[in-house]
Amino acid sequence: MKSFSKLDAIVATLDRVNVDTDQIIPKQFLKRIERTGFGQFLFYDWRYAEDGSLREDFELNHGRFDGAAVLLTRANFGCGSSREHAPWALLDYGFRVIIAPSFADIFYNNCFKNGMLPIRLSEQQVEELFERARSTDGYRLSIDLEKQTISDEQGAQFRFDIDPHRRESLLKGLDDIGLTLRQEDRINEYEARRIQFQ
Amino acid sequence: MPRTLFEKVWDNHVVHWEEGKPALIYIDCHLVHEVTSPQAFEGLRLAGRRVRRPDLTFATIDHNVPTWSRLLPILDPTSKTQIETLEQNCKDFDVTLFGLDSPHQGIVHVIGPEMGLTQPGMTVVCGDSHTSTHGAFGALAFGIGTSEVEHVLATQCLIQSRPKSFLIELEGRFARGVTAKDVILYIIRTIGTDGATGHVIEYAGEMIRALSMEERMTVCNMSIEAGARAGMIAPDETTFAYLEGRPFAPAAFEEAVNYWKALPTDEGACFDRSIAIDVSSLAPQVSWGTNPAMVTDVTGEIPDPDSLEDENARKAARRALDYMGLEPGTAIEEIKLDRVFIGSCTNSRMEDLRAAATVIAGRKVASNVRAMVVPGSQQIKQQAEREGLDLIFREAGFDWRESGCSMCLGMNPDILEPGERCASTSNRNFEGRQGRGGRTHLVSPQMAAAAAIAGRFVDVRQWEN
User: Fold this and answer.
1) How confident is chain B (465 residues) per 10-residue block, as mean pLDDT?
2) DSSP B349-395
3) Is residue A37 a part of any domain in this protein?
4) What single-letter DSSP state applies at residue B261?
5) Are B348 and B374 in contact (CB under 8 A)?
6) If residue B124 lies in a helix (H) or strand (E), which one and from where to where?
7) A15 vs B contacts (CB less than 8 Å)
8) Do residues B393 and B370 touch, judged by C-beta distance below 8 A?
9) How far apart are the C-alpha atoms of B136 and B223, rounded to whole Å?
10) How many CB pairs under 8 A join A and B?
11) Nearest residue to A121 via CA among A148, A82, A94, A87
12) Residue A148: which domain range?
């Protein structure tokens, strides 16, 4: 798995609550059998009109967010389908960090498996970041996973919470499967005492 | 110490745990389908790994399959590739596949219970969020991403933080014309789409005990729509009676039942949260917006976004009404429909089809409506045909299709055209879910059936069969 420690990048905003994974990556693009190449389809129905042209009413199409690697959004981001194609699409498009007041469980989990960092902040802190991103062209945030901080050039600084195990895995880019396989003796032992009926 | 159903199942599956860290838990049953598995199998190949327990791994093909005749070719080359990839993977890794030619093919969450693979006290996972369905048996069942699918294939385990617990007690009996679907829609409407995030729900109470297994599956199925990690119902005589004699049910059935009987939540066990809901006066529910909490009574009207307190909720409701092409104040019963879809892992089982058939028997689908029924599995399709339900549907003007996920998510050719409005027995009314620009209203099978005949929503409690 890819590791993550620090990032300083432009922030794109998506001011909507309950963004579901069907919006992040619509179903017609789930038929690929690879993990890559999904970025072009990210937020497809919101990004493109039916004739394939860019929709001006969609925030990510605004030039000011070009090159953004941080996505700032609202509560319950990534709800709905378990499709890991959603973080794959966000990552492939260029996002490494997503900041929101809350995330859906499966999506949150899927992010870590792909070297992405979802950060939960309070509603109030998220609102403040939205304000700052609105009023500053090319607004950037520095994220430091080791120190668990988010800061900007104007002096805003927030600390964020993260499960220590997830933090460790992400910092080191650990391979979960490799780690679990090292516990094979324990798995064998469990299988020997496992409850099952013939 | 008294423990909850969830705690018992969790504790029984901990392979290893250290204080302050997530646990390594064992998975008893891993269900696999064509959409979320190809990258996982590819990962195994690249790392030279094998499937640890092919005997606990079962695959089917459901998301992509056309629901027209199985004799016709699959026209979409990318769907065809994905299906063939699963067939090859199952062959290479020795996994049992209930493929397109199998009499047991069907929606993964329909066939698991149908074959007796899902049993009380088990851990069940699948790369699909509606895995919560299997919790109806008192299993701990939840959806996972593709990386975790690979993890389970390779190790038969998952690294999981222990979720919190949430008791939803349901009291009262619902009226004729009101269903388990209305109950779960009402719950989501009440607690919100993130109302149970990080929690495993246990549904309990007098109302739940009175439900059939199929109704319990409908309730647990949509737990994810409230954000829950899983939904569970304690096993009881209804559960045991359902399981007995199914192909994968334990041969030592009595022994198993004795173990299962010890699973229900102990008296005095603590939950992190709890609510109680009385369903006695519940009306049939209809979704009006673009998430499954945007729901109201069939006798109600489209709400006014300006009446909402929270600014984010107001904006979301305005967006939803704009997408749905609806005006505040419109009565639900005035909403006209173009399509009706009866199917999905929420509502495609025998009881759903029988209930819908009762509503439409001897009537005709309205001229403005195209309606289809997609049974959840080949077994259900055959049983329905033995009971003559296919004839009732066909004579009324419904399409009678082959089994699969179909228009619940529209990965196959069954999709809405832009602007089309659909009464759907599925689980998600997200923008574009059933086809770009399509407008989905979530309802029960009875409500969908009555809407197909009337051409608009009607209160099925008033329906004369």
Assistant:
1) 98 96 97 98 97 98 94 91 97 98 97 98 98 98 98 98 98 96 98 98 98 98 98 98 98 97 98 98 98 98 96 96 98 98 98 98 98 98 98 98 96 95 98 97 98 98 90
2) SHHHHHHHHHHHTT----TT-EEEE--SBHHHHHHHHHTTHHHHHHH
3) yes
4) T
5) yes
6) strand B123-126
7) 315
8) no
9) 11
10) 177
11) A148
12) 6-196
Cβ under 8 Å to A: B residues 102-131: 121, 127-129
Token pair for B240: 């045991």
Chain A CB contacts of B253 below 8 Å: 197
For B284-337, give the DSSP string: PEEE-SSSTT-EEETTSBPPPGGG-SSHHHHHHHHHHHHHHT--TT-BGGG-B-
CB neighbour list of residue B249: distance below 8 Å, 6 or more residues apart: B116, B119, B243, B256
Neighboring chain A residues of B145 at a CB cutoff of 8 Å: 82-84, 87, 106, 109-110, 113
Cβ atoms within 10 A of the Cβ of B277, count? Answer: 18
Which residues 6+ apart lie within 8 Å of A33 measured at CB? B38, B39, B42, B81, B82, B85
Please report, for the domain that includes residue A52, its CATH number. Answer: 3.20.19.10
ipTM above 0.95, yes or no: yes
Judging contacts by C-beta atoms under 8 Å, the chain B residues touching residue A114 are 147
Measured in degrees and rounded to the nearest 5, phi and psi for residue A54 equal -70, 140
Neighbours of A2 (CB within 10 A): 11
CB burial of A40-72 (b: ≥16 within 10 Å; e: otherwise) equals: ebbbbbbbeeeeeeeeeeebbbeeebeebbbbb
pLDDT digits (tens, 9 = 90+) for B342-390: 999 999 999 999 999 999 999 999 999 999 999 999 999 999 999 999 9
A105 at B interface, C-beta within 8 A: yes
Q: Do A26 and B198 touch (CB under 8 A)?
A: no
* pTM strictly above 0.95: yes
Say how many domains are in chain A: 1
Task: Note the pLDDT tens digit of each residue in B98-136.
Answer: 999 999 999 999 999 999 999 999 999 999 999 999 999
Q: What tokens does A65 get?
A: 């967010």
| Inter-axis angle of helices B213-221 and B180-191, nearest 10 | 30
In-domain check, residue A17: yes
Pick from B258, B260, B185, B191: nearest CA to B227:
B191
In a domain, A1, yes or no: no
Residue of A nearest to B65 (CA): A31
The C-alpha angle with vertex A52 and arms to A48 and A56, in degrees rounded to 5, equals: 40
Q: Is B126 left (phi over 0), alpha (psi -120 to 50) or beta?
A: beta
**Residue A104, in any domain of the structure:** yes
Task: Indicate the length of chain B as a whole number.
Answer: 465
